[in-house]
Amino acid sequence: MTAKVAILGASGYTGAELVRLIATHEGLEIAALSADRKAGMDMADVFPFLRHLTLPKLQKIDEIDFTGIDLCFCALPHATTQQVVSALPRNLRIVDLSADFRLRDPAAYERWYGQPHAALDLQAEAVYGLTEFYRDEIAKARLVAGTGCNAATGQYALRPLISKGCIDLDDILIDLKAGVSGAGRSLKENLLHAELSGGTHSYSAGGKHRHLGEFDQEFSAIAGRPVLVQFTPHLLPMNRGILATVYVKGDPKVVHETLATAYAAEPFLKVLPFGALPSTRDIAASNYCHIGVTGDRIPGRTVVIAVLDNLTKGSSGQAIQNANLMLGLPETQGLLLAPVFP
Amino acid sequence: MTAKVAILGASGYTGAELVRLIATHEGLEIAALSADRKAGMDMADVFPFLRHLTLPKLQKIDEIDFTGIDLCFCALPHATTQQVVSALPRNLRIVDLSADFRLRDPAAYERWYGQPHAALDLQAEAVYGLTEFYRDEIAKARLVAGTGCNAATGQYALRPLISKGCIDLDDILIDLKAGVSGAGRSLKENLLHAELSGGTHSYSAGGKHRHLGEFDQEFSAIAGRPVLVQFTPHLLPMNRGILATVYVKGDPKVVHETLATAYAAEPFLKVLPFGALPSTRDIAASNYCHIGVTGDRIPGRTVVIAVLDNLTKGSSGQAIQNANLMLGLPETQGLLLAPVFP
Amino acid sequence: MTAKVAILGASGYTGAELVRLIATHEGLEIAALSADRKAGMDMADVFPFLRHLTLPKLQKIDEIDFTGIDLCFCALPHATTQQVVSALPRNLRIVDLSADFRLRDPAAYERWYGQPHAALDLQAEAVYGLTEFYRDEIAKARLVAGTGCNAATGQYALRPLISKGCIDLDDILIDLKAGVSGAGRSLKENLLHAELSGGTHSYSAGGKHRHLGEFDQEFSAIAGRPVLVQFTPHLLPMNRGILATVYVKGDPKVVHETLATAYAAEPFLKVLPFGALPSTRDIAASNYCHIGVTGDRIPGRTVVIAVLDNLTKGSSGQAIQNANLMLGLPETQGLLLAPVFP
Amino acid sequence: MTAKVAILGASGYTGAELVRLIATHEGLEIAALSADRKAGMDMADVFPFLRHLTLPKLQKIDEIDFTGIDLCFCALPHATTQQVVSALPRNLRIVDLSADFRLRDPAAYERWYGQPHAALDLQAEAVYGLTEFYRDEIAKARLVAGTGCNAATGQYALRPLISKGCIDLDDILIDLKAGVSGAGRSLKENLLHAELSGGTHSYSAGGKHRHLGEFDQEFSAIAGRPVLVQFTPHLLPMNRGILATVYVKGDPKVVHETLATAYAAEPFLKVLPFGALPSTRDIAASNYCHIGVTGDRIPGRTVVIAVLDNLTKGSSGQAIQNANLMLGLPETQGLLLAPVFP
């Protein structure tokens, strides 16, 4: 038995990644694809790498007949998503990949996204989509809010440490290195190959990046008190992958043991032997997350490094993992593809 | 039912690519892995991107018990392969990825590889592994010789044109652009990131590349007369992918029609609409080959462009496609993974 | 003594490259910079890599006072250039980097650029800017039309061969590999890092690229009869550099000798020893052009490979070389910067 | 007047970078080049990008006649340098680019480099080569020890802050991102293009990197008490450039003001306006260092980001800047080349 799914926003990178993963997922079947400005086109003309697949033509959202569709992936831009999802059938299961439903507190949403939320009822209903920590809620949810890709990476490194209380909550620093596909298919000069390749820079430094809203919400909820982390992202000349170097104050061996124990049974989260350092190359195009821990020469200081693929585990793979839960399919179905190297 | 396979030479890129593909191939199971200098190590230590898999430890070849193994992939360096395969059990099915058994004529082998062949009986037995053109022979073969990755790309563009006689056989030119993984894991200065990235150069120009031996053998056999092509490879700052720009003298529409007809039923060979130009990005990490055809402004001249991934369709994917045939499995099993983009 | 120059279109890559080169050119001083949409900005805000220089603010063209300016570099888009240059003072020396004045025949211009030329008098006056072949005319010219970067590369490989009559004029094929900065700062999806890196494709295949207009004009003029070449460009995942693989029918040694003799005294054109193959890495960010020649295994066929940096020798370096001649400065002044490697 | 220089170790990247820079340095002339294993070869055969220069042939060091040579650049591997320099004429001025003479304390040397120092007298004599902070000593020195490239980057961000006492000395964290040319021309699998491109990883995490020896020595000397920083380097898929993200506890505006004041008169150190973030792309292939400062959202925490080109300002450019001082030439001579972008 296969479930029928629709993908809204199929002309972006996360939409295309959903199609790539579903292509060999035996439990899901793509019944509809939307892309407003490219409605009427074949997916093969928008993404020739999908040429070998038989896919429905791209439609406008309001042309889609949702009858018989079991679940809808929503890979639309932030802000427009609220309006679109509000207009969808209320019985339709939705996995949203935008930022619109990640923050439970409307005030926090407004602060980080610069405008009031336009669908407060949906926001209240949405379950935060970090699968390993919200499994039961996700399995029962109608609307799941996919996490930010950077937010997921940082949380995999930190959540068990915060919940076990083995680090100083007032001195957590996340220095993050991200590939460029996380910026989407945006036409900006600094994303051109000529300008991005061969160099690196920081952006949104100093606590301005929106994914901080997720860190604040989640870490504070776990700790039962406000937790504010430092977070400085950098853009790297690579397409896929995020590496988060997380600096904490806590005992290195305890930190390692805590993470290894927390994730021992997780199919996609792999804690490396103590001292081993992960590489984004080793999880590219896969749903795996590798985590390494080492001690600093200064006693009591620990470095945790987590890597994942922003388009897979950081968004579209996570979305399918959540959809599997919502549809009663095996959680790992369609997601066991090995990373691609070199 | 799954067939048990061994992979000899598992510490190179084609060996690792075999493991990557077999990881989600439901008809194959890896029973043994060899890597002489790394014997005793875990595959996860040689290739951390395979860390999530449960795999046998790396062994020396002579430590492997071939009892119960249905098929052996041999991903060893050229020349040593002959000796290794000579010593393997004579009833073992073998898919070889080296150059050792590609050339049927011992004199041609000696000319292109600079030494006499050391296993003439095996060479005589081997079937050339370009799946789409040797299906029946491969299905019955004990020893299949995987093609050169450049040789495969050029042949997909040209074989139907030569067999249908729609191009001038005395004026065929292949200008080829190759990614660096085709050079293997060799430690050479010009393969370092610092020296390879950001630029391009030609190598083996002027008819010196060994894959010419395959072109000569195959094209001459099809034509029933000697056919010598020009072939100039270039190394590009990319890891995977080959693009062959093939210049022929013949009618563009006839050329396109000939290729489209020849490959209409092929699961992995996709001829684009006339005038559309393929990109290596659209077949990365997959077993697909895209072929485009366009006419030049000079009447009677045609440009055929074929792209494939050297590690997949050009070697390890091809090897599995052949193994599927040899083992009576569906030809496409395990090979329908979508390309990875971006 | 230094000459005062203006640069129109300073917010594009060729404009920035002019500033980079003039920064250490002791005979030129930048007196004005234009960039219509960015007028009022500091150059350091448009191109932070030029932050260390003291430069005039960006202006609109009609705000510039051309009194006292000895020469104007015009790095504007095609088509608008005609109008802008028409409105400039008639006594101002101009080196134009656009395509607008490259084709002497108005009909050829209209054919390749899709519209009639709007400044026929200027077109008639313009001298083609391939320095080594138009030195005397350039030294006396008021308006010099910089060549296409691909057109320059192909001509360096071929002009002496055509003028000496040592190759078959009816069978010349240029397979060209170009870095992405040649496409300028255009915001197009296929120029994004996420889409361009890691792969290659051909564009304008089949005789559609506009630089063919230059090849036709120049080669036919040298030969005294129509010469039509085949020309297929490819886009590579690198920022700077063009490599033209030129296939000719002619004796390899004669071809090499002809080129070596023709360029023996040229400061920027280096013919490698017979058989040596050039790399774009060896001329990056410099005004040098390297040319290699080798014979094919098929007698009478020769491969000539020329490499240059599209932004330097292919446009802005060439422009300064021409400006030096026009201003009576040493031709090589400011242009002897060594390539950058790695 | 030009000074005659020798370059020992001319077949590595820093050696080649010295030649590149000296090529347009009007005060220096290359009189001898050494490369032991490549003795007898032309530099153009080792580094074809230098083909246009007239250079002495590569020699073994003991073949060089140092008579008349004013200064010797030593770009040899660590450890062998001590022996080589010990055997050089005692009146010869030397700028060393290795790590051998950077640490004044023999015990510190032995701890970080794993063996006792073999030339203690030279080590005692050597002046640390961070030009802006040791100008007077360098001008009078016979032997100058070039700094580590990472060490230089971190120090430019931190020295004035430590000396002015405006940050917490017990909580300094340097997260560093480095291009691959810093690893030299070493033949290692992880430096191959196929393995390095498209991803990132940390190395020597946890306080193991040898450049910590320099940080400890210098920062403690400035502070007059032990200062231990955290330092985690990462390898990025780019050839040139280092970006150091330095996290300090101190007032952002005071930090910015302190750096801006300290470097106001420096020709190569550029402090950006408060809040502006530097990019390695903007200093590539140049001797400039850009420094940005921003405040974190957590009061009292500041992020300082410094970028420089490891081969230029981080080693060979620094070496020439020091040589200029030692030879009585203008400090900036030959070093004002603009960065290369894109």
Structure overview:
- 4 copies of one chain form a homotetramer.
- Chain A is an alpha/beta fold and 342 residues long.
- Chain A folds into 2 domains: 3-147 and 313-326, Rossmann fold (3-Layer(aba) Sandwich), CATH 3.40.50.720; 150-309, Dihydrodipicolinate Reductase, domain 2, CATH 3.30.360.10.
- Chain A has 11 helices and 14 strands.
- Chain A has helices at 13-22, 43-46, 80-87, 106-113, 120-125, 135-140, 149-164, 193-196, 211-223, 252-262, 312-326, and strands at residues 3-8, 28-34, 58-59, 71-74, 93-96, 127-128, 143-145, 173-178, 201-202, 230-235, 242-249, 269-271, 289-295, 301-308.
- Chain A has a 7-stranded parallel β-sheet. A 7-stranded mixed β-sheet of chain A has the order 9-10-8-11-14-13-12.
- In chain A, helix 7 (149-164) packs across helix 10.
- Chains A and B meet through helix 1 of A and helix 1 of B.
- Chains A, B, C, D: The active site is at residue 149.
- Chains A, B, C, D: This is N-acetyl-gamma-glutamyl-phosphate reductase.
- Chains A, B, C, D: Pfam families: Semialdhyde_dh, Semialdhyde_dhC_1.
- Chains A, B, C, D: It comes from Paragemmobacter ruber.
- Chains A, B, C, D: It is found in: Cytoplasm.
